[in-house]
Amino acid sequence: MTTLDTGITILRSAAGRVSAAHSLMGRRFKSVMPTGLYARTLLIMIVPMVLLQSVVAFVFMERHWNTVTRRLSQAVVQDIATLIDVYKVYPQDKDRTQIKAIAQQRLGLVVDFLPLGDMPPPGPKPFFSLLDQALSVQIGRQITRPFWIDTVGRSNLVEIRIQLDDAVMRIFAQRSAAYASNSEIFLFWMVGTSSILLIVAILFLRNQIRPILKLADAAESFGKGREAPNFRPRGAREVRRAANAFIEMKARIERAMEQRTAMLAGVSHDLRTILTRFKLELALIEDGPEVDGMRKDIDEMSGMLEAYLAFARGDSGEQAQPTDMAAALEELRSDAERNGHKATVTFHGLPIVTVKPASFKRCLGNLVSNAARHANDIAITGHRDHRYLTVTVDDDGPGIPADMREEVFKPFLRLDDARNQDEGGTGLGLAIARDIARSHGGDITLTDSPMGGLRAVVRVPV
C-alpha cells in the first residue's frame, strides 16, 4: 500500500467519524427541540430577540458604560490629585480646614486625614468590578501612591484612602460621580420592551396558528367519519388555500361515494328484478329436486348480491353519534348465544364512544360471525382509554396462518383449506369489517388468540 492510499484511508475514516458525530448531534438536537408548530415559531421569535438584546447589552456595557465610567473615574481622581497637590504646596492650613471646605463645596468630596499607618486589608471585590478597575487604573496613573478603595461598603459612597508622606487622606465620593449608575433603568427598558413585543407577538401568533389547528381537526374528523360543521377557511392566504383544497377534496370524495352508491343501487334494482322473475317462474313449476336446487341457488345469489352491495356501499350516509359500546357488545354476545355458541363479554373504561352505530356494530358483528362460523367459544373484550377504543374478539377455532392474515382482508378471498368449506360465505366479511374500521380512522389486525384460535383486534380513535 502506497503513502497516498494510506492517506486516503485515513481521510475516509476521519470523514466517517465526523459524519457519525454529526448525525448523533443532529439526533440529540432534534430530541430536545419542540415538535409543535406553535412552540417552534415562538422559539424562532424568542431566540433571535434574546441574542439581539444580549449583543446590545454587551456592546452597551462594554463600550458605553466602560467609557463613561472611565471618564467619570478619571475626573474624580483628577480632583483627588488636585487636593493632594494643594495639600503639599499650602502648608499654612495646619488644621486642613480650607482643603476640606474646598473639597466639599467645590468638588463634592468629603475629605479627612488619618494618622499615618498601614492600609486596611483589601476587601471583597464585587462580581461586576468595573468601578474598581477604573478607579484603580486612574489612581495608579495619576497619583502613583499606595491606595485602598472600597466600592461596596456603603451603597451610595465610594471610599478612597491615599497614603501621603505624613498622613493618610481619606476621601468619600458619591458613587454617581464616578460610575454610570443608570444600568437598572436600561435593563428595565430593555426587558420591558422585549416582554411587550413578545406578548403582542404571541397573541398574533396564536391567531395565526388557530386556523391550522382547525384544519387539522377537520381533517382528523373526516378521517374518523365525522363532520366538522363549523369549519371554514380562515387565517393567512396559504392557510386558506390549504383549507379550500381540503374542502374540495372532501367534496370530491363524498361525490365519488355517492355516485358509487347510486350506481350500485341501480345494479341492485336490476338484479333483484331478475331474481324476483326467477322466483315467480319457479313458483309456477311443479316441485321437484331440480326446482328445489334452483330455489336454493337463487337464495344464495340473493345473499351474495346483498353482501356485494353492502361491501360497495360501506357506511355512507350515516352520521357519527355517541354510542354505548358496552351495550352493543352485550347484544353481540346475545346473538352468538342464540346461535348455539358460548360467548363472554368484558368492557373496561367509559363505554360512551362516538362512532357510526349501525356500521360499527356491523363491523364487530362480522368479526363475531366469522369466529362463530369456525369456533365454539368466543370471548369479546372492550377497552376504552383517552385515545382509542379497542375491541378484541378471541375464538378457539383453527385460526389463520400468519402469512395469510393480511390476504384474508381482500374481497372474495376464502381460506377453504384452513376453514370449513361446508359453511357458506362470500369472502367479504373481513373486508367489510376493515373498510368500516378504516372509515372510522382505525384498523383491524389479526393475531394468535390465548384461546388457541384467532384474535381479531379492532382499534379506532375516540
Report strand order across the widest sheet: 6-8-9-11-10
Q: What order do the helices and strands follow? A: HHHEHEEEHHHHEHEEHEEHEE
- The SS-based structural class is alpha+beta
- The counted number of beta strands is 11
- Proportion in helices: 55-70%
Mean pLDDT reading: 81
Description:
By secondary structure, the protein is α+β, with helices and mostly antiparallel strands. Helices cover 58% and strands 15% of the residues. It has a 5-stranded mixed beta sheet, with helices on one face. A 4-stranded antiparallel beta sheet has the order 1-4-3-2. A hairpin with a 3-residue loop joins β8 (377-384) and β9 (388-395). The longest helix has 53 residues, at 37-89. The protein starts with a helix and ends with a strand. Residues 417-424 have low confidence and may be disordered.
Please tag this protein with its features.
rod-shaped, 462 residues, four-stranded antiparallel sheet, 15% strand, 11 strands
Task: Compile the SSE list and pairings.
Elements: H1 3-32, H2 37-89, H3 97-106, E1 109-114, H4 130-142, E2 147-150, E3 157-163, E4 168-174, H5 175-178, H6 183-223, H7 237-283, H8 289-313, E5 321-324, H9 325-338, E6 342-348, E7 352-355, H10 357-374, E8 377-384, E9 388-395, H11 429-439, E10 443-448, E11 454-461
Parallel strand pairs: 6-8
Antiparallel strand pairs: 1-4, 2-3, 3-4, 5-7, 8-9, 9-11, 10-11
Summarize the structure.
The protein has 462 residues and is α+β, with helices and mostly antiparallel strands. The chain is built from eleven helices and eleven strands. α10 runs antiparallel to α11.
